[in-house]
Amino acid sequence: xxxxxxxxxxxxxxxxxxxxxxxxxxxxxxxxxYLNTLNMFNDILQASASIDTNLQSFVDKLPSNRLEExxxxxxxxxxxxxxxxEQEALERVLQVVQSMIDxxxxxxxxxxxxxxxxxILV
Length: 122
Fold this sequence. Notes:
Blueprint: H1 5-30, H2 34-56, H3 67-86, H4 90-121
Helix pairs in contact: 1-2, 1-4, 3-4
Organism: Paenibacillus eucommiae
Domain DUF8042: 1-118
Protein name: RNA binding exosome subunit
């Protein structure tokens, strides 16, 4: 796994960036800022896709984990958020972030850290 160290570090950094983006969407949505939250959501989706690509390069070398299951739950939240944006329903955006994205992200992030962090601490 040493040869994947840089990819693991980049993956963990991107996961932190996603969390910061979710925080930004939560705050800006409460302030009524539709356009900037939509742009941030697009950035989050790109970061999430990059993480998925990164994980595919070494997923078969990881110990048993729940990353796929928890990632699917997070993607379901992202789909609900995309629908709220399509409907231009900013109140719904905030509701989806709080009720679906936040808990899904926290579970996924914990599992990502549990699974990957040991490979950069070696």
